[in-house]
Structures are given as structure tokens and as C-alpha cells.
Write a structure and sequence with these properties.
The chain is built from 14 helices and 10 strands. The protein is α/β, with parallel strands linked by helices. Strands 1-2-3-6-7-8-9-10 form an 8-stranded mixed β-sheet, sandwiched between helices. It has a two-stranded antiparallel ribbon with strand order 4-5. The two termini are 32 Å apart. 31% of the residues are buried.
Amino acid sequence: DGMVDNLRVWNSRMAKDIDVVRSKQIGRLGVSSNEEPERICKTNRAEQPRGIAQSLKRSIFSSRNVGSDTSDLLPSIVEASVAKKKIITEKELLDSLEEATITRDDSRLDFMANFFKDNSVSQLTVMKKARVVWMNDWYPLQDCTYAISLDKEKKEVMVVFRGARTQMDWRHARDFKVHKTTNPVKEDFEGKPSHIKLHSGFFNYLFRLRKDTNTRKYDEIANKLYYYGQEFGEDFSLVVTGHSLGGALSTLFGFYASTDERFTKRTYVRVISFGSPMVGGCKFADSFRYQEKIGKLRHARIHNNRDVVAHLPMKIMYDIEGGSTYQHVGIGINLRGKNPLLSCIYESRPTITYACSESPIKAYLRAIWDNPFFKMPFFHNIKYNHTLHEHQQRLTRGIELLKRDGKDSLSSKTLDEIYRDIAFRPTVALT
């Protein structure tokens, strides 16, 4: 906790100093801070990387002697470095940052992974070889926000959807009406429906036509992904992920992308959602399972036990087609929290199941059992159980417990292996 507090202080100090540098740059350009950002960004891009790095260095450390005792500025980093039997001075750190900026070589910053707690989000971020190449937040109050990253080592393109933050996000998330649309799956299969039913809010966020450009958000994102994927030729894979609203959008986007030949030439589309609500009905689920069966789609649906959002929308009315209006899809990984009363005796392990096809009666009974009111935690835990931080904590702890048990499950199996073992054998569950 002390280390996190120190990092927060350092980050806030850097943010203030960077604002000072930005204001100085804007002043030198002779423009107002209220002018269009495009003009400022274009001019800033003309500066040399070395000049930018040096100006930031002078601003952040202008009142300090480079190479002096760093315990005041970066106490947490010094402590972490001592634990690793290596002292990193302020000058060495600054030189590494400058060289990484100038050469665009992210590997020069790999040593920073030692500054953070093992398996923490910060450490995983540093260790990840991917780089962000695009972020769409032009109209953050009207459109869904997403980012695209590239991983050259894995030849992987990833799109990340943001969860609900704005009023428009919540308006779409609460639009529980059912939207009937044409089934995008091109191949014929037994019982193939011509139309599928989807959550109206999620569908409209990705597929409504814009009045100004007459295009859909899905097409914009898909074209961007394919454009950046061309850095690897045709030999690239697509990963789609998100949390909460972002998890629902990633599920829907991944399903449609699996019907696009541009993204399935090398391998299947991989969807990893966190705390996602349901996005479609039984016909959608049947089509989703067919895409999984023919090897074009894989979905790891990770959710915390007693996370209310994962049991939405509420399904109390009987649906004539499939029993339940909404159904989950993919491999469900249920992460159980630590019980303070029983943790000294036993800790629950993650449970892995597959959303298989069910009869309408069974699907309806399951919908009643999975009613959000029956899965409600104590009131003060409703919001906490849904946070991405709690997902990460439980997932890390679950993997540690499974490794300790020596079980051949989540800790050692790939998503492909889990699919092979249980996807079409609904009576099997890995724990």
C-alpha cells in the first residue's frame, strides 16, 4: 500500500510538470490553449524525440541534482531495486527513459517490471510487448470509446472497449429491449435461424447508422483493425476484450468479426470479457456456438461470483423460442472471493463451465435461478464485486490456488484445450 501511495504521488507530480511543459510549448507556438487540438498536435509532432525527452527531463528534475540520492523522489523504486540486488540511480532511470523515447524501443523499459508487485496490472502492463496505436475518443459523450494495440511478437491485434462512463453509455446499457436482426453467419447449419435477437442498446451502439457519415461503428473499428493488422500481412490474429459494457460490446463485436474472413484467415477470433452482461437470445447463442464449433471463435467470459451485472438483463418472462430472453455464451470462468470466516480452512477455486444448448424449459429454469436478486451480494459489495480490480485479484489468487493443488485446469490449460475438453460435453465442469 505504501508503494502504491508513493507511485501515486510521483505520478501526480509528473502530471503537474508535464502540464507545465505543455503550457510552455503552447506559449512558444503562439496559440491559445482553447484552439483546435489538431493544430497543436501537428506542430508538436515536428519536434525531435530527443528534444521532447530533454524538455520533460529538465521540467521534472530542474530543482534536483541528477545522480543524487533518489529516496525522496522515488522511494518505492529504490526499495524495489534493493530487493532485486540492484540500485538504479536517477540518472540511469532518466537515461533509460530518454533512450526508449528516442529509439522507440520499448524493451529498454523491461526492467521497470521489477518496480511493481508480481502479477499486478502495472507489472503486466510493463511486461506486455504490445503498443497502443489508436484510441477513439473524438466524441466521448456520444460514441463508445475503444483502443487498438499491436503485439509484434504474437502478431496480434487487440481492440479494447471501455465500460460505462458517460450518460450515453448508461442509456445504451439500460436499453433492455430486444432487437431482431439478420443472422450474419454465412454458412448453413442444422437449425440455422434467419434472424437473431440481440440487446437493443448494445446493438445500436455498434450498428446504428451515423447521420453525418452514414457508416456504422462496427465498420469503422473493423476497418481500423484490418488496417493495422496489415503490418503483419494476412498472418495476424484478433483479440477483443472489455469490461462491463465493454465486455458486452466485445462479445457482440467478436461474434460479427468471426463471420468476417479478414479476421479468420490465420486463426479464430478470441474474445475475453470481464463482468459482461448477456447480449442475445437463444438463436444468437446457437449461432455463436456454431462459430465456435467450426473454429472461428473462442470466448472466455470471466466474471466474479455474485456480480449482479453478469446476471443482467433480468429474465423473468418465458420466451417461446428458447425459454429465456437472454443467454450467456462461451466458456464461463466464475471467480469466487475469499470468505473471511472460512479462508483459514478452505478457499473456493474458480469454476469453469460451458454455455451449452438447453431445452426451453431448462433454459427458463436456469434464468429464474440466475435471477440477479438471488445472486445479490451484501449491499456494500455490489459495486466492489463488479470492479476490474477485483476480477484481477480473484483471477490471480485462483491461479495460485490451482497451481498449489496441482490440478490440471485453469492454471495450465489453454483456452483451446478447455474448449476441446468441455465445450461440447456439457456435463463436464473443471474446478
